[in-house]
Amino acid sequence: MASGFCLGNDEAYYYTYALYPALSHFDHPPMVGWVIQLFSLNLTFNNEIFIRLAAVVAGTVNTWLMYCIGKQLRDELTGWYAALLYSASIYGFVIVGVFILPDSPQSVFWLSAILLLLKAFQGEIDATAKRRFLLAGVFMGLAFLSKYTTAYLWLGMIIYILIYSRKWLKTKVFYLAHMVMALMFLPVIIWNAQNGFVSFLFHSGRVEPGATSFTPDYFLTEILGEALYTNPFILVLIVIAIVALFKGKFDNEKPQISLLVWSALPLIITFLAVSIFRRTLPHWNGAGYMTLLPLAALWLRNSSGLRFPMIINASLAFLIVLLALSSAQILTGFIPVERFVKAEKGKGSADYSLEVYGWRQLGTEFNLLADNYEREGAMPVNAPIVSYRWFPAANYSYYAARGTGRFVMAAGDTSEIHKYVWINQVHGGFRLNSDAWYITSSRDYRHPRSMTNLYFEKVLTPDTISVMRMGKPAYYFYVYRLKNLQSKR
Predict the structure, then answer these.
(1) How far is CA 116 from CA 129, 249, 484, in A?
(2) 436: β partners
């Protein structure tokens, strides 16, 4: 899967983290860019499988970590259940384990920290426990360098210590671990201090109420998205396990389970609450549901001694069917989406499977087209490609500009173009009297004149690139030539 499909919008955007590395970035800390650089040998190997390789490795390591956490809670069969539930989770198997997102490295460090904390908290505070706690601090620092939601893992640890083990507060290693975390997070602090703390302000704005009244569409979308990403069967199992916890069914394991629950529930509840007023994405609290998988495994272990309980079979079957149908839709478009929704026929705007389809065709056709215009003298060699938003600008960076002398810049407010504010600066900004390429698609068509930040003297008639699927056009790209930039803002 990682090698078969085009990069999604977010993945192409995180490719720019590796292409233009920095201490941190507008949207996220730097780790996702670092692991892309590591597993692609600094983009020496830069096709999709190498861009996503860190995610594939993360998903594999996480399966083993889940087994270890489940085993730590009770026994090997509990670990087996936890590993299977993780493998059946769409978040774990696909979102983290196929697509390259900040969640991919974060999940490895998050689960590693939990495993070490569970081991550190299981007995007396001896030298081994202190080493484990300090190493957990290192992994939490790495998780903080991956995604800001790691704060909830830290919160879970603090709540656990305050309730069950206050004696840790009297140890030097407790404060040393926090010093390590702070030092590891320092690059993010430095970058934000140099840029007006723009990343922190951006994310604080995302969790503030965006409306003054309940917005049922947002809330329902979040609930359904969480059910899908977690796997509906697994979500039911998690709910059952949480209810059992509150009924006192886990009294023997309650201290260890509390670390999982306090690391997970505040994260889940936060984004459920935010979705009441503001649009959210289901994977934002995916780490919370992932953290509750060992709890679900423990409940299943206490209720069944079977190697493959029915609900695990159902979960795995759901995953397999969903992946098969999704892959078939991406490759063939066998579901006529436009017939079921109100969308203009032939534009592809209603079919979300096209987000990871057609970009390779664009890259091939655009470069042939651009090379021809350059040979004819109709366009300057290696003129930049301009866009109006961070996506599709990032997709063009990967599929249209990669391997050529061209590059992509974006015109718009910081809230629209994100990291491209800094990418523009790398390339010297927009130059008056210069020419540029402009690409837009029928799925999200924007005329070049919609870029109010730029004004070109001429916008020439576009060339059309048809994206073919099963011998039929699925959607179209329009390639404009913009001549003689006259003003910029």
Answers:
(1) 9, 25, 60
(2) 482
> Cα–Cα distance between 257 and 298 in angstroms, integer?
10
307 within domain boundaries: yes
Most distant CA atoms of the chain, gap in Å: 78
Cis peptide bond prior to 392, omega within 30° of 0 = yes
Q: Say whether both 239 and 377 belong to one domain.
A: no
- DSSP 8-state class, residue 145: T
Encoded tokens for 369: 């087209």
Q: Position 111: which residue type? A: L
Instruction: Indicate whether 344 belongs to any domain.
Output: no
Mean pLDDT within 373-402: 96
Specify the length of the chain in residues: 489
Beta strands of 100-245 (E only): which ranges? none
Strand partners, 409: 386
CA gap 30, 23 in Å, rounded: 6
Give residue-wise pLDDT tens across range 164-216: 999 999 999 999 999 999 999 999 999 999 999 999 988 887 666 555 567 78
Q: Examine the domain organization and report whether 132 and 209 are in the same domain.
A: yes
Q: Both tokens of residue 488?
A: 């910029």
Nearest to 467, CA basis, from 396, 362, 343, 380: 362
The structure's pTM equals: 0.95
Same domain for 470 and 402? yes
**Residue in the structure block whose two tokens are 């992932």:** 290
Q: Would the pLDDT of 334 be above 70?
A: yes
Which amino acid does the sequence have at 109?
Answer: F
Domain holding 447, by residue range, is 353-488
- Write the single-letter amino acid at 50: F
Looking at the domain assignment, is residue 406 inside a domain? Answer: yes
Question: Of 304, 324, 344, which one is at a domain's C-terminal end?
Answer: 324
On whether both 97 and 217 belong to a single domain, the answer is: yes
Q: Phi first, then psi: what are they for 402, rounded to 5°?
A: -60, 135
Number of domain units in the chain: 2
Q: What's CA 385's distance to the chain center, in Å?
A: 25
The string of pLDDT tens digits covering residues 428-456 is 999 999 999 999 999 999 999 999 889 99
Whether 374 and 318 map to the same domain: the answer is no
Inform me whether the pLDDT recorded for 369 exceeds 70. yes
- For 144, the token pair is 């903080």
Question: Which of 8-22, 241-255, 264-278 bottoms out in mean pLDDT, i.e. has the lowest?
Answer: 241-255
Query: Is 164 found in the same domain as 91?
Result: yes
Distance (Å, rounded) from C-alpha 2 to C-alpha 202?
30
Question: Would you say residue 333 lies in a domain?
Answer: no
Count of CA atoms in the C-beta half-sphere (13 A) of 379? 24
User: Are residues 61 and 200 both part of a single domain?
Assistant: yes
Q: Which residues of 70-99 are buried (b: 16+ CB within 10 A; e: fewer)?
A: bbbbbeebbbbbbbbbbbbbbbbbbbbbbb
